[in-house]
Every structure is written in structure tokens, then in C-alpha cells.
Amino acid sequence: MGIYLDSPNDTDSSKSAIINSFTSLKRIASAEALNRPDEGRVRLCLVNNGIFCALAVLDSEREANAFCGSDSRPRSFFDVDIAEAAQFTPDGMIELRWGAPSAA
């Protein structure tokens, strides 16, 4: 299981409050979410699972591929500052596990 962002009052509306709290928020397309984020940034996916919403951290290619899949769940993708996102994790940290960046 991956990393999910939560607030103390973990509800679907709190997920929206978390997203709205980011000053560095950039909405991105699912195709862009499959790419390694820039240094100091992280990709997030807000996915509606029917009975609840989840705000997932796309901390690796594996997570990005899983959340960008072709199932019918509604979802939105975001790019944010990693420090802003980390404040909503249980340990206050996000470690990215993407492969090495490709040479330019």
C-alpha cells in the first residue's frame, strides 16, 4: 500500500481542504502524472472510490501506473511542492522511489 495524505478529521471534504491548502498546486493531466516529477515536487492523485475519496502520493512509477490505470473511477492529478504534501503524512516525510532521471 502506498502513501496517502490525510488530515486529523479525515473525510472526503478534508481531502478538498488539503488540496486547497497547497500554495504550489498545479493541476496536471494523467499522462503527465506518469512522468517523474521535477526536483522538490511530488505528484498526487485524488481518486473517488465510491464510498470514500483517497488522496494518494505517486511516489514511484509503480504507484503512478496504478493510479493512472483505465478503470472508471473519477480522479484528478496534481503536482505540488513535496514539503507541503509531506505535512499531511503520518511521519511528515515523503521519499520518492522513481528510477534515476533520464539523461537530457
Could you characterize what this model shows?
The protein is α+β, with helices and mostly antiparallel strands. It has one domain. It has 4 helices and 4 strands; from the N terminus they run αβαββαβα. It has helices spanning 12-21, 30-33, 61-67, 82-86, and strands at residues 26-28, 41-48, 53-58, 75-81. A 4-stranded antiparallel beta sheet has the order 1-4-2-3. A hairpin with a 4-residue loop joins strand 2 (41-48) and strand 3 (53-58). The longest helix is centred in the first third of the chain and has 10 residues, at 12-21. It is globular. It starts with 11 loop residues before the first helix and ends in an 18-residue tail after the last helix.
